[in-house]
Give the backbone structure.
Amino acid sequence: MLNPRQAVGNIPAYHPPLAGRDGLRLDFNENTVGCSPRVLERLRTLTYEDLARYPEREPVEAKVAEFLGVPKQDLLLTNGVDEAIHLLCQTYLDPGDEALIVVPTYSMYRIYMTSAGAQVIAVSADSDFRLPVNVIRDSITPRTRMIAIANPNNPTGTFTAAGQLLEIARSAPNAATLIDEAYFEFCGQSILPERNAVPNFFITRTFSKVYGLAGLRAGVLIGPPDQMPSLRRVCSPYNVNAAALACIPDAIEDRPYIDRYVKEAIQSRNRLESTLGSRGIRFWPSQANFVLAQIAATKSAAQAFVEQMRRRGILVRDRSADYGCEGCVRFTVGPEEHTNRLLAALDAVLDELSISQGATRS
């Protein structure tokens, strides 16, 4: 009888609520206005021949490496950051190894770690969702082979300073330490200039968020030069599709478009946090393009809030299933016009449900 590996049976199910997403999509941290017009123009130039060929990744990798200021041999383009996480797990984790995450955080870390047969050690964030550096260090053992940290973190939006991240990496010299910077552009601070301070540091970036290319699936993995050949051996040579490779150069070159979107998203984030604060609703100050708020005391009440927002054409994400997030809802922010619609619906639903102060977190 054919059976999957035991590790596969242990993988937690992940079912993102993608179906029926009619309305203003403020639930998945996507760019809410889409990609640069230059990207769309580039897509229109693709020919039959372009799509008939196997994609060639290296020329685009060289352009992205130059843009980020890293040697091209230290950079690998991936099929979204998800593939980068998967490659790290496949390269460094054996069954029985330990892999460390800090919860709540991005779900795919645990999924890919588990699929490799590793034992996932989940360290709880502190009372303000900050990274508990000392607890992480105490949790590192000789079996620790990977550590994954999102910075800024998802779903909380919290940010950790470079010095603390380096301290963690130095405490686990035998572990691949991943710093996932998917939301880097919204905080403007990166560990990238410090990446050579330790020999086990990996950094990921994405084109899914600020660049508005989530549908093309393109990410970046940056790592130590002596480690990248091993990751390339694990990676498919044709992992990034031709359309994504054609569009990436135009996406990174249109800086005015990106800078304008980031500025508006940050202004919207400030407006949303101010509104939540004025209503007495607890939220966690964010360095990303979203804000996490404790709307209610229970999951069912948070779901009722999300449903009422949906009926007003605004999609937001219930995060109650995440560790320590019961009753919490995450709001993506974007340009002013979208934020005006969000805040109008937010005020109406809070009044309708008589929500004036979210339950405190224990």
